[in-house]
Design brief:
The protein is α/β, with parallel strands linked by helices. It has a domain at 5-192 and 224-252 and 294-313: 3-Layer(aba) Sandwich (Rossmann fold). The chain has helices spanning 14-26, 66-76, 90-95, 97-119, 157-176, 198-207, 227-240, 257-271, 301-307, 315-328, 330-338, 344-349; strands spanning 5-9, 31-36, 56-60, 80-83, 127-133, 180-185, 187-189, 212-215, 221-226, 246-249, 254-256, 283-286. The strands form three sheets. It has a seven-stranded parallel β-sheet, sandwiched between helices. The radius of gyration is 20 Å and the shape is globular. The termini are far apart. Bound molecules: nicotinamide-adenine-dinucleotide and 2'deoxy-thymidine-5'-diphospho-alpha-D-glucose (DAU). The site of 2'deoxy-thymidine-5'-diphospho-alpha-D-glucose (DAU) has 19 residues, from helix 6 and strand 8. 2'deoxy-thymidine-5'-diphospho-alpha-D-glucose (DAU) is lined by residues 88-90, 133-135, 186-187, 197-198, 201, 213-215, 220, 222, 257, 289, 296.
């Protein structure tokens, strides 16, 4: 196989860091370039174990800067892009939708343009893989699943921006013939998850005896997937999907928020040697998220049947492993919550 140079965007973030680690370790013949702006969500501490590997390099760059991105592509001459860089948090998108348009929509188009210019319409050797979310499909009622055929119906500014970026990627396939692939995944959990999201926020709050904010009645349903299973799915799809295709990624693992948090509280009581029931007392119902989608649930049959991927971990086991990781990595958590990992964080996290 020819040496492949892959630009992975957003590699300093939660999922991106797991994808980088997987590709750097599994494919020593590939050159992996992590392109990331290091916003509040980017943390190079996530990649300490791979930063000195010969087939890895980091470039600090903002995908909103079209000229810069074009010049990086010209210099690096990548064979492929795996695009994860994004503003990813729904609550932030409600406060500042434009930031989501700028990074998720315009940033994606800047990458597509740079790839188009560098690859000079000879797309047979190149691939643009766009990582997206199940939120583009909108919300389900109590039954049914999102398939690859489900019509897009995004509700939040975040999901609207991701839907738009998905459409642009497909448009570059349909209009210019670019080799593109899109995957839409359900909620991820695991190590290095930024503690603004439900699971790591709750672990951190329970550890510090702070209240656990549950939006509305806690009855919204999310479909949770171990982040390393997502990284493995991206690997399988990147290498095997036909051009222009889409795959949904999920593991049939639906939980209401309140049931999930009660399970987490039980695990935390055990790990912290607290009386059973101690952590549950921290649960506090707060004002609901505006436009809060009721339920997400992925039908992963296409991915399982065509490419043979299936999730490796049961949720209870994965959640316990996640708690163990956060308790063992106090330095990581303290650096993030104190803002020591980067100054920019001060400005961004404190308004949560
Ligand atoms: P994250 O917020 O943890 O990380 C995002 C990364 O992108 C950070 O390293 C950040 O520095 C970088 N970034 C942000 N803006 C940038 C810009 N303008 N230029 C360059 N880099 C920039 O996000 P995540 O949860 O790891 O999600 C990664 C991708 O996967 C996103 O595209 C997201 O929509 C998608 N996704 C996430 C989930 C989930 O459960 N977290 C599920 C499905 C899909
Ligand atoms: O479905 C995939 C999506 O999952 C990704 O595309 C997003 O990038 C990712 O952030 C995630 O979005 P959610 O909004 O589902 O994740 P979050 O952790 O913010 O919230 C999970 C559920 O918990 C949701 O129903 C809102 C609720 N919640 C969240 C927070 C932060 C609470 O009840 N309290 C909270 O404090």
């Amino acid at each position: 196989m020819n040496k492949k140079k892959i630009i992975i965007t957003g590699g300093a973030g939660f999922i991106g860091s797991h994808v980088i680690r997987r590709f750097v370790n599994q494919y020593p013949d590939y050159q992996i370039v992590n392109l990331d702006a290091l916003t509040y969500a980017g943390n190079l501490e996530n990649l300490e174990d791979v930063e000195s590997k010969e087939n890895y390099k980091f470039i600090k760059a903002d995908i909103r800067d079209a000229e810069l991105i074009e010049s990086i592509f010209e210099t690096e001459q990548p064979d492929a892009v795996i695009h994860l860089a994004a503003e990813s948090h729904v609550d932030r998108s409600i406060k500042d939708p434009l930031a989501f348009v700028q990074t998720n929509v315009i940033g994606t188009v800047n990458l597509l343009n740079a790839a188009k210019k560098t690859w000079k319409s000879d797309y047979s050797k190149y691939r643009f893989y766009h990582v997206s979310t199940d939120e583009v499909y909108g919300a389900l009622g109590e039954t049914g699943f999102f398939t690859e055929e489900t019509a897009y119906n995004p509700h939040s500014p975040y999901s609207a921006s991701k839907a738009s970026s998905d459409h642009f990627v497909r448009a570059y396939h349909d209009t210019y013939g670019m080799d593109t692939v899109v995957s839409n995944c359900s909620n991820n959990y695991g190590a290095n998850h930024f503690p603004e999201k439900l699971i790591p926020l709750s672990i951190n709050n329970i550890k510090n005896n702070k209240s656990i904010p549950i939006y509305g009645k806690g009855l919204n349903v999310r479909d949770w997937l171990w982040v390393e299973d997502h990284a493995r799915a991206i690997d399988v799809i990147f290498h095997n999907a036909k051009t222009g295709t889409t795959y949904n990624i999920g593991g049939h693992n639906e939980w209401t928020n309140i049931d999930l948090i009660k399970l987490l509280c039980k695990i935390m009581d055990k790990k912290l040697d607290r009386e059973p029931g101690t952590s549950e007392k921290l649960i506090t119902y707060v004002e609901d998220r505006a436009g809060h989608d009721l339920r997400y649930a992925i039908d992963p049959n296409k991915l399982q049947n065509e490419l043979g991927w299936k999730p490796s971990l049961q949720f209870e086991e994965g959640l316990e492993k996640t708690v163990d990781w956060y308790l063992a990595n106090e330095k990581w958590l303290n650096n993030v919550t104190s803002g020591n990992y980067q100054q920019y964080y001060e400005l961004q996290y404190k308004d949560k």
